[in-house]
Amino acid sequence: MSSVNLEYVLRLESLLSRIYPREHIADLLKKILHLADKWNYGKHRNTRWVDGTNIYLITYGDNIRHGEQPPLATLNHFANTYLRDIISDIHILPMYPYSSDDGFSVIDYRRIDEHLGGWSDIHHLSANFNLMFDCVINHISRSSEWMKGYLHDDPYYKDYFIAANPELDYSRVVRPRASPLLSPFIKTNGTELYLWTTFSEDQVDINFKNPQVLLESIDVLLQYAASGGQSIRLDAIGYIWKEAGTRCIHMPQAHNIIKVWRTILDEVIPGTRIITETNVPHHENISYFGEGDEAHMVYQFPLPPLTLHAFLRQDTTTLTQWAQSLNAEARYPDTTYFNFLASHDGIGLRPTETFLTDDERKYMAQETLRKEGRVSYKDNGDGTHSPYELNINYLSALTEPEDDTELKARKFLAAQALLLSFIGVPAIYIHSLLGSENDLEGMHQSGINRRINRKKLDLMTIEAELEKKDGLRARIFYGLQALIRHRREHPAFSPQAGQRVFDLGKSLFAMERYDPKTEDRISCIFNISDHSQMLKLAVEGKDLIGGEVFNGQMRLRPWQVVWIKHKLKAPERLGRLRRWRMKLIKRTKRYTISIKRTMR
């Protein structure tokens, strides 16, 4: 066994003792250390933390197809042809064999779905891009070997799932679905029982009260990290611990399990980033930062609905108030926000519960229905239901059906520029990058609401549409490309740079990003209205997007965005020159000392 860091072992022991009875800890520790050796403890990467050049792409492995070619190979071709200078990390949504929910009912965590390709395709893709894998560990498919073994009374799978009495009161349990919490199953010996199924009867919740389940999860996570998963998304992770008489969400044990995973990954495969997916009210979501010892990044769930609300109402008041509260929350080293506007899921409304009224959420639901989308509801536990998710393509939600191509692109790029401006790391969904709209045919044919935003695209068709420079796809793709290039060149957009949000009235959204190391300062101003607006700022500089010199005022066109890079004032320039001079002197001294030592 490799030599082991004692501090690491003691921390693991402390965390495990908060989850399991004392008599299990020694055996658990021993088995965890064996797993670390299995995955070459200490022999993997030690990479830098994220910076302003990190841009994630969110995609299914088969969102782009090309004839009989394995879709992962097609993704590799598309990414290397079009994305090398704008995307650093690719999040591949669940790529494992599955039985339902478009990949989120996993049959086997350790294999790649043969319809997508194989681990060799993942290896090829990782040559030029960092990869993010999904770990769907709250539940597993009823078609999995785990479930089959459990129903056959295989001793190995004893207590892998959560049997419960359907006669008891579960009204306190928080649910993201209106389907039954418990589903009936029949063992091979004829015994009927009810198992916990938070998301659907095909997705059976795993029992983390069984220490062997924790070991299974650690093995899976280490395999992912060792196989190229530099980032790992923990799907629906807030639900992993169930306790009778509680809400069964955000339990202390759930937080401690994530801390166990973080501790192990930091030690065994350093540089692996954990991203928690908890689509809940904001204050609950950010609790997954822990004390800087839990998630590296948390999904910025209020951003998509609040941005959409601002665009629909042409009123940035709520967005501004929320954004002003963000400044100090990701305050730990190596933690930040995972920002996005669209994903494979719909637009979650729960994160708006402390920011929008019920009437405003109903308005957003009505707008979604007017634009041919769908609304999903959650069970409140008291017999009532509330809008939970807007199932609609983000571009279709943001624009009007009668808008022309140029206006649709202008509105949508304004929203994407806002995403790219926020403190944190931006992630762009494949259908946003490519300017897709509602896939009504896919939704109607499948009967699945979320399919409205999951269309499978043909590579040749996409390439042809990107050649049509006045088309919607080309306007959005190349417009985003230009924005991303500007962002990656300026330290003010780094996740470590400061952010200040200020109020310029309801039609404008305004923030300033500032990097203290380089003194790079950029004012990001957005006209979120269909009227021109006069912008007045006590700033001199140049708009990075349009190239126009800014001398204190400018009239913004409808939906126009400016990124004004501040001109350094004379004292600031002098201060920067002095610092550069001091650095040069120090380097020269070190070089001189080094030469003298060599000559000796």
Automatic annotation (TrEMBL):
Membrane-crossing residues? Answer: none
Q: What InterPro entries does the record point to?
A: GGa_phosphorylase (IPR033746), GH (IPR017853), GH13_cat_dom (IPR006047), O16G_dom_2 (IPR045857), Sucrose_GGa_phosphorylase-rel (IPR016377)
The residue ranges of the Glycosyl hydrolase family 13 catalytic domain are 72-485
Q: Which residues form a coiled coil?
A: none
The answer to whether UniProt assigns keyword Protein transport to this entry is: no
- Keyword Hydrolase belongs to the record: yes
Pfam families for the chain = Alpha-amylase (PF00128)
A GO term (biological process) for this protein? carbohydrate metabolic process
- Sequence positions that bind substrate: 101, 139, 233-235, 344-345, 450
Keyword annotations for this protein, in alphabetical order, are: Glycosidase, Glycosyltransferase, Hydrolase, Transferase
One GO MF term on file is: hydrolase activity, acting on glycosyl bonds
**Origin, by domain of life?**
Bacteria
PANTHER family the UniProt entry points to: SUCROSE PHOSPHORYLASE
User: Would you tell me the protein name for this molecule?
Assistant: Glycosidase
The organism's taxonomy opens as: Bacteria, Pseudomonadati, Pseudomonadota, Gammaproteobacteria, Enterobacterales
